[in-house]
Fold:
Amino acid sequence: MGFISVAVDGPSGAGKSTVARAAAERLGFVYVDTGAMYRSIGLAVCRRGVAEEDTAGILEALPGMEISLRYEEGAQHVLLNGEDVSDAIRTPQIAQYASKVSAVPEVRRFLLNLQRDMATKNNIIMDGRDIGTVILPDAPVKIFLTASAACRAERRYKELLEKGQQVTFDGVLADIVRRDLQDSLRAVAPLKQADDAVLLDTSKLTLEQSIDAVLQIIHEKMKG
Ligand code: DC
Structure:
């Protein structure tokens, strides 16, 4: 029997990673955070001093770049040329770089095989923007996880404050709205709900309720 893939897509800050990670843990599936891969490329580009809009500079940075995933006690670590950058990629600046590099077709092609490969070797829950539409169009379970922009900003704001980052709510909301637009309007693999995805709006749900809802969708799909 082949492996089971669960695709979880949705906008920034919908809680995809927290919910997908917890659901994967309960099911004994491998959790794959594809945003971390785009963020790692964003970090590499930023470190080279390339401007986020500089497509030629982004393309020049790709050859020889190596992105890989490692799992330690079930937690995903992302490596950029062997360096664990899991923490370094979690800043608003790198999120913005990630959004820009992810609009470049060569960058998406660069990551496609790595992402598909994960699904051929493990039962996975993979989160991103185009998993159900482009990366794993045949995934038996697809979930589009969303929440209102205000709810997402509120959650992200608290998360960043807890990490000690200096942010304002309005700044976080503006970042989220800008990234939503960039991610939805880009020409290649835009953020879009797959026709056969189940829509889950977590605006009024607690984290625990969101995890339960995801597990229930998975169970029902696998049953039927
Ligand atoms: O989920 P995240 O915030 O870590 O993602 C960072 C950026 O990467 C986001 O702005 C869009 C992009 N991304 C993408 O284009 N495709 C994916 N499968 C995952 C992320």
The pocket of 2'-deoxycytidine-5'-monophosphate is lined by residues 12, 34-35, 38-39, 95, 98-99, 102, 128-130, 179, 183 (CB under 6 Å).
